[in-house]
Batch of 3 targets.
Target 1
Amino acid sequence: MPDQLILEAEGLSKSFQAGGRQVAALDAVSLGIRAGVVTGLIGPDGAGKTTFMRLAAGLLVPAAGTITVLGLDATHESLAVQAALGYMPQRFGLYEDLTVQENLDLYADLQGVAPALRSARYAELMHMTGLAPFGRRLAGRLSGGMKQKLGLACTLVRAPRLLLLDEPTVGVDPVSRRELWAIIGRLVRSEGMSVLLSTAYLDEAERCTEVILLHEGRVLDQGPPDAMSARMAGRTWAVTAPGLRNRDLQAALAGQAGVVDALVQGEHVRLVTAAPGLPEAVSSHPGIVTRAVAPRFEDGFIDLLRRREGESRHATSMAGPEGMARSAADDAVIQVQGLKRRFGDFWAVDGVDFQIRRGEIFGLLGANGAGKTTTFRMLCGLLPPSAGQLRVAGLDLRHAASAARARIGYMSQKFSLYGNLSVAQNLDFFARAYGLSGRARLERLAWATSEFELGPYADQLSAELPLGYKQRLAMACALMHRPEIIFLDEPTSGVDPLARREFWQRINGLARQGVTVLVTTHFMEEAEYCDRLAIMAAGRILALAEPAAIKALARTAANPEPSLEDAFIRLVEDSAMAAAA
Amino acid sequence: MSDRRGGSAMRLKGLVRKEFLQIVRDPSSIAIAFLMPIFLLVLFGYGVSLDADHVPIALVAEAPSSDSVDFMASLQGSHSFAPRFMATMPEAEQALRLGEVKGIIRLRSDFSRQLRRPDGAPIQVIVDGVDANTARLVLGYVEGAWGSWLAGQAARRGQSLATPVAMESRIWFNSELKSRNYLVPGLVAIIMTLIGALLTALVMAREWERGTMEALMVTPASMTEVLLGKLIAYFVLGTGGMLLTVGLSVWLFEVPLRGSFWVLWVCSSLFLLAALGMGLTISTLARSQFVAGQIAIIATFLPAFLLSGFIFDIGSMPAVVQAITHVIVARYFVAIVQTLFLAGDVWSVILPNALALVVMAAIFLTITWKKSRKRLE
């Protein structure tokens, strides 16, 4: 049984119209998914994950190829396929103005669950998801994690043989994420269910039995995640050089011959080499201390991508924008004291204090609803605080919000670009909006085009750019007026790991020149790049320290090398316990 | 087979119950389904009137005499006018310019003398022609008032007015000439368009926007069941809107309902099916609430308001516009409603219009059914 294929795709292709061009979402994909295990469909945004899921559920018709689900043709026998599988779409498919119980009843009616069987099944699902106390609450009033579990429960009212989950962990806090994985594990073990789950989080790969790596509509690799990590054995290192900041060390090592990847990772630089052993360029670096570490799934992915793309995207020089404003180091550029913000009778931000030094990369880490975005908006002068002190670049935001705004750059998660303007027009608009004129504007436009390599795309509409280029353009626009502080809101969620590295290399370059960087994120990986982190939950800061010190909080005998996620979960649980006590 | 049918009934029941729960809990549905109809009823029942009622008018008698006082008193007694006496023409002209009065009636200084001459006394009437409709009404009313005052004068003197033709006028169907009596019943069409087309298009688009349509599609429910669930729920809601409008028309606004209520019910149901068909057709084209709302307002609500004969008589529109009204579903229903309320069961009007409603409903529901497949593209 276990080796039987429950889903098979043969030469599957699908493309969409986007701005007059055909964009291939899937390009001749052939793969098989085994019954009775969890298979992860892993890849960045735009890799074709959702398209594949929808084809499997019979919601789209392929341009070429076939897809067979549970022995049925998903395209031509879609009703039969839909009757046999469970599918949770990206936003969980819940009716927000119905209660938890009403949502369950609706899906039980739709799935034809006999009334006599319902109470037992509901009890089982409620127990599994921990939603029992919330039966009468509207689904729209649930937290992201609870919505996700309710969405799953609705999909499971009639136990399906195959469960398709489309990015179930996006925007969900790490505690709920861990619980979801526990539930999936139980379903596979006790009910023999087969699960296909898509995700953009590479660290989830290791929880799958088998992994399909999707990139730009093609399958890069398929197999157990350990097999991918195993190829990297002897090629991963933790490197430090006493006296040298990690950021400078990383800049020195990245792009050297034999180095596939160099990444600031809390207290050290993580290095991936092209072959087992350390290359000459690294071992000869003065004062270097190296230590072999265990390979991770992401290392294998990076290695595959680099080999596929050659060196084309690798050795970009990240000189950083020249001549940014700077003054004496080590003074606090952002000072926040007792910051509060209330919406109705709900405190979105409930007493937050921190200081950020010049040239520091500071991260605000928390789940959706933790108060990150509200804090961020207050810092940008977009939202007045209910109470507390707020100084940005030496200016009090209560009195000089617009003067302060002239000195900050802001890049939002959605990039805030004009989709129907070309790349050059977007750049020009933002340059004018920041009051640049004459030669100064031409200089900055030339700088942005060359620094971010936007020249070849100058005439393309920004809505049609690949995600990684949209991100570059958004950053170029945010840096147009040489700000001394930049705010980044979830800057790299969903982009592929190479684009993310490139982006952080630029950010590091800026920080080295004295630009202060504030990042909000719910991505653990992104948090690792920060100098200091504040972990937020329910409007408060639970911990504020260097990533290494935060990780150390969760160190136990059983878990000597905890991840940032372990630490995060530990902090959230401790604070929940303290609140209950 | 019976199992399948049983499952279908269960699914449909679940879908219909879901729709009702959503309607009750969603403020925008309540606003469109309940508040808008009441607002429109009150507005058209009390506010909007196409009658000339207490129109402000300036009266200038240059040499007041018993005759001029008597004529002006007759105007004052009519509820059509709210006369204001002014001493001189310049004063009255200024008031007209400022829009304080809609017209001026001027009796010259020789009014009494001229009155007793064989060729009669001229009076001058100046009307503010900006609002052509009111202007025509004022002219007509003044002429009428003048005529009846003269007849009264003649009778008092024991003579009959020497006119070769005497008009005996009778007003049928709406003998008090209240515009409310035909505006309020016509609102049934507007309100059912709101619920059937606008609200239905919006709630379907919301299912696409929030991703719930995708989840519904991957259940054993067929597209026909999903559509039927919406159709049943909003049919019931639209019927509620119809009953509310008819009830308020008859009991609050005292509009006579001369035809059969059951004929009205059947015709309303036909129109509602056509409106729902339009709403669902729009939702197969537009998957965002913003676009769906815009299309629904431009393609269904505004035409029902302007081109259905609800306010503006189709017979007096230019030929091209008259031709266009034939594709407006509401026009057939407005004709039926106005006839049923004010004239009664006139089958020669009701049957052809009802047939047109059947054809329109069939066309739109077929388009919906053909266009909706369980696919995301």
Target 2
Amino acid sequence: MKLYMKYVGIHIRSMMQYKISFLFTSIGQFLVSFNVFLGIVFMFKRFSNVESFTYSECLMCFSIVLLAFSFAECFFRGFDEFASMIGNGEFDRIMIRPRGLIFQVISSKLELTRIGRIVQAIVMFCYAVSKSQIHWNLYRIITVILMIAGGTVIFAGVFIIYASLCFFTLDGLEFMNVFTDGAREYGKYPINVYGKNVLRLCTYIIPFALFQYYPFLYLCGKSNQVSLGMLPMLGTLFIIPCSGLWRLGIRHYQSTGS
Amino acid sequence: MIKVEKLSKTYQVARRNSGFREAIKSLYSKEYEEIKALDCISFTILDGEMVGYIGPNGAGKSSTIKVLSGILTPDSGECTINGRIPWKERKAHVRDIGVVFGQRSQLWWDVPVIDSFELIRDIYSVPKEMYQRNLEELVELLSLNQIVKTPVRQLSLGQRMRCEIAAALLHSPKILFLDEPTIGLDAVSKLAVRDFILGLNQKHNTTVILTTHDMQDIEALTSRILLIGKGKILMDGSLDELKGKSVHQDASLDEIVAQLYKQFRI
């Protein structure tokens, strides 16, 4: 952990070499997410609800997904750009250091400009909380925290899968964006609005629904089962097969050029 | 001690001819060709030896270095370095080695060199006194005094290479792999780097394995030469043995090597 802070330190110092760029990228990130927020607002200007979910509920749902995604992206960005790390030989450098590989990949690319997106997500979250008619109690607060933490872990898992696939092929991985950026976008609405099949996919294959739809039912009072609120913890188990795939990938690593 | 026995590694390389149609075709059917980067390689290197590892481009030099440094997992064969298998005990193994890739930087681009050094110190958890001692020695021998406070992107190639070598030695490794360390350097920097490596070997008895195309590097540094071509070790002997293979007497080392490449059809 101490070493991680050292890495953060060097990233911040690098970043400060390009202060203006940092500022503008952060603002840009903020605005892009704001755009999506406006999308929801205009939608609900015309329709009052989506599949029995009200405007404020959807807003709540989206802000939680966005928060989880932004955290994951901020800290696990290294995996998202993993193809280029392999391509330019940076990964070789990582392999010759006596530290965990996943740790090093995480700390070698910190996307601090994503601060913009996190700020956006927090603003939206606060707004959603004030708008929502949720009856808060201790369990619901824990549920929210679990949803965000679980979501971060699951998104991180998706990033790791993406990175592991890079060991086998360096191109044709665009489809993975469906599960990263795509998941963030369609995470705006509780997953059941997309139909049974998507819900099933997101429950058993890539457990987005475990941190979004099911606990959300409990959160907004559509269900009284506290156990639903604890499901994100189950979802974090997703990281286990992900890291298995990662290890398999390492053994396949071919490196590049001289 | 480095012990390598019957090491093999094959790559699958996708091939296609030039042209738009071929590019489209490669989208749905790719032709793969197996390339034997390493083909049953065996050798032993003792502690404190300085070995020159030569061969034409694509002969398998870098692949060997990558296997020895734990980056690649070979298909078959055995390799133990100081009693460890590099790709199985990666973390313990890499503490003992230093690697310099001439064409790749291990320093952080935008911050002063000293910041990179300190991060490397923390990564290897080098004890404070040892770090201070090593740093002072390296700064003096490689004359980095003025350089360490400059961001890496503002350094010249020669200055950067000296920093790279220092960075690889901060944790006092027993074995140093140098992959084309003098590539693109001017005469002064080359000589400085060579002198330093010689001194390092004499003072700390560091094992040095050097790949290079610069025969002057070989002549100045190494007493033993491994010649590799098409993934096979073709010659393992002293510099004099290599010189003895020349056809006419006053052939330069470059000419002798070129002649050997021809002879072995590599």
Target 3
Amino acid sequence: MSAMVSLRSLSKSFGRRPAITDISLEVPAGEIFGLLGHNGAGKSTTFGVLLGMVAPDQGEAFIAGHSVQKDRQRALANVGAIFETPSFYEYLSGWENLRFFVSLSGVDVPRAELEAAVELVGLKERIKEPVKHYSHGMRQRLGLAQALVPRPRFILLDEPTDGLDPLGIREMRTMIRRLRDEFGITVMLSSHLLSEVEQLCDRVAILHRGSLVFCGQWKADASHWRFACEPTEKAGAILAAHGLASHGELWAAPVEFDPANVVTALVREGVQVRGVGQVHRTLEDFYLEVLKE
Amino acid sequence: MSGFLFQLRGELRKLFSRKRTHLGFAAFLAIELVVLALLRLPKVQRSLVRVIEGAGYTAADYLSGQTLGLMIMLSTVFVLGALYLALVGGDVVSKEVEDGTLRMMLCRPVSRLRILGLKLTACLIYTAVLTVFIAATALATGYLYAGGGGLFVFAPSEGIFAIYSASQGLGRIGLSVPMMALSLCTITALAFYFSCLQMKPAAATILTLSVLFVDSILKNIPFFSGIKDWFLTAKMGAWVMVFEYRIPWEFMLEQYIWLAAINLTLLTLGYLSFSARDFKG
């Protein structure tokens, strides 16, 4: 599958402080891709470079094969984005805001397409009201609506669920999935809600202090187990001898792992086994583990 | 080009939907009414009559709507005009940066040059509209108070003292409006330049006004009279020259070429600064 987004050796410093260092990654077309990292890890800078708002010191970003740095207009021609908190002209209606931002794309968008986007995000009833009367969730929806017109091939969402209530988060998740499944739009998003990313994304990249520390399918790891044993050092040595790898409190098991054999071995060696359980290792566990390493 | 016009329409809608944009219109109307009320005071009337009759003309013929309209324009346009153009021009880019709406614009496949071009064009249209509004309302209030009659021009700082018939006067006032708009474009360009730099909208407005006030103060220092024409506000005052009996076109052209060069330099510097900036919250 061809790459919709390609970042090649991106580096950027603000003054003496490096924001991102040598970031390279690719997002294939049709994927939902998550960019993760603590605050200040470099996510916004990466998105800024990708949208041509931040000039990298080194490297280049490509969208659909076009260089953002050399041919920004062509690269962004098929891009919709919410970069940081969506901001609007408070004194204009949602509809007027939408029309204005869409006009900047330089293409003649039929009214029906605008109305379809408004309907898709569920703002039809309130779209003629001034944005100053909108709730945070409605602004997020309007942000998404403007990103969807004209129909993009790639959409970039920076914290799309930020500040939404549980129902809003769920609706946003459903909408993002629809964008990919129904319209074939490639999605790249960042979020601190790792449970959301876990449910949505095919692959993730993790940034730490401006460097890429992981990029791939975290779900493909071996299954994990939790052992409650005494003494722990002795138990750890026995588990390691059976091919289990320590991941903090959890143990990654090999494919042919049989828990009965291990428990028998632990008991035989005088270890008290209080409990054994298979654990679904969440993205949060994985994320924290990667950053710890 | 149609794309540009379509985008410009959106930019103008944004500009003219803001309450702040209309402050200038309301303020000018208010000040015109205040000036008119003051002109009705007997003390002021006597002073006006003395100047006109001292020149050998009948006050009744020349204390007219045109004369009062021009007096209102001369006394208000640079102080209030500077204030409101600086307010609108100083806001136009920096406020959008501050509010985050510029980031939303830059998510689109539109060049920074185009964005600035749209904003500048909208500001220039606002300048023209405000100028026409000032002239039209000043003249209208003058006519409402004093009715028809000839035009008496008394602008001592520019060394102009002239008398015109009603039709000639109207022609000169009509000619002065586009000239005044051209002069005011420099305030817009100055405010726009500051707005393109990395600063708060209020700072852009205050800096614009500071430059104009300092320039005006320096221009009026008596020892600097020999270099008076060097100052920005002196060049901007060239529009008043259309009220000379023999209009000094050559001199005016020179002043406007200077202003155009200054404006172009400011706009180029503004663009260079804007295009080199990183936009990230």
